[in-house]
């Protein structure tokens, strides 16, 4: 009976862990935290699997804006019995405690809020209809023909100089017997 409960909890851990990773990859960090917290609570925290769940939980905490929880969990992972988990926990803690650099505003790109798209749906439909109208030939831009007298057509003897340099190089190679 005990092994049956253990195998059931292992299945739940795997399911929650996979769900946490999937939601993390989709950018749904709060849901990822919830799934990974469930998996972490059910797993043996001192096992490799438990440590991996906790490492992903640190990443989810940070992505969800819960930096203090991420740092606290990294402090625990520094003392994890598995060497790789311990090392990753120390690395993550170092990154999380690093000072934040200020970026100039011109380095940043503002992403518009697309949440209001449903409010402007009627305006979008109108703009699509106006774009689908056939354009008259008068509205097409006319191409300007450039004045050929302004274009430099003088021979700059580049080809002659390049051929002379190639012939000189080949002659030198033959002369030295290479």
Automatic annotation (TrEMBL):
Pfam families noted in UniProt: TPR_19
TPR repeats: 13-46
The keyword Lipid metabolism belongs to this UniProt entry's keyword annotation: no
Keywords of this entry: Membrane, TPR repeat, Transmembrane, Transmembrane helix
TM stretches of this protein: 158-177
Cited Gene3D superfamilies: Tetratricopeptide repeat domain
Presence of keyword Plastid: no
Source superkingdom: Bacteria
InterPro entries per UniProt: TPR-like_helical_dom_sf, TPR_rpt
Listed name of the protein: Tetratricopeptide repeat protein
Organism whose genome encodes this protein: Chroococcidiopsis cubana SAG 39.79
């Amino acid at each position: 009976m005990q092994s049956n409960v253990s195998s059931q909890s292992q299945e739940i851990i795997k399911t929650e862990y996979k769900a946490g990773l999937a939601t993390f990859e989709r950018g749904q960090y709060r849901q990822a935290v919830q799934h990974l917290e469930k998996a972490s609570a059910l797993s043996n925290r001192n096992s490799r699997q438990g440590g991996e769940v906790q490492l992903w939980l640190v990443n989810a905490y940070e992505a969800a804006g819960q930096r203090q929880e991420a740092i606290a969990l990294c402090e625990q992972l520094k003392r994890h019995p598995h060497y790789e988990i311990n090392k990753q926990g120390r690395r993550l803690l170092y990154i999380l405690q690093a000072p934040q650099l200020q970026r100039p505003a011109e380095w940043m790109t503002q992403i518009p809020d697309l949440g209001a798209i449903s409010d402007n749906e009627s305006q979008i439909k109108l703009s699509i209809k106006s774009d689908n109208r056939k354009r008259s030939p008068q509205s097409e831009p006319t191409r300007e023909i450039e004045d050929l007298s302004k274009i430099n057509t003088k021979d700059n003897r580049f080809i002659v100089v390049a051929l002379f340099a190639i012939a000189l190089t080949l002659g030198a190679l033959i002369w030295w017997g290479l």
